[in-house]
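RECORD TYPE: protein structure
NAME: PIRT protein
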Amino acid sequence: MEVPLGSPEGSEKCPQSPELVPSATGSTLCTSSRSESVWTSASRSKWDIYHKPVIVVSVGAAVFLFGTVITSLSCFLTHNKNVYKMSGPAFLSLGLMLLVCGLVWIPIIRKKQKQRQKSQFLQSLKSFFFNR
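PREDICTED:
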C-alpha cells in the first residue's frame, strides 16, 4: 500500500476523498489519530476525567480485601485448606496490581491535564500574535 508524501503538518490537514461527507457548515469530516477531546475546548467534570482510575482502584481494593479474607480462612478452616492457600494469594496479588495501577494512573492524568492547558494557552498566544 502506497502512502502519499505530504508536508510535516500533514497530521493537521485532511485530504479530500470521496468517502468523506461534507457537513452543513462546509467543513469536511476528517479521521485523525488525535482524540476528540483535544479538539473540543469544553471543560469536563472531575468524574469524567478520573472515573476510570477510580473504578480500577475500587475494584483493586475489593479484590485485595477478598484475597485477605480467603487467605485468613486458610488459617481458621480445616477442610479445603489447600484451595484457600492457593486462591488467597492469587486474589491478593491481583488486587494489589489493580490498586497500584489505578493509583499510578491518577498522577499521569493530572500531568496530561496540565500539559493540555499549557498547550492551549500557547496556541492562543500564537494565534493572537501571528494572526494580526
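COMMENT: Residues 47-126 form one domain.
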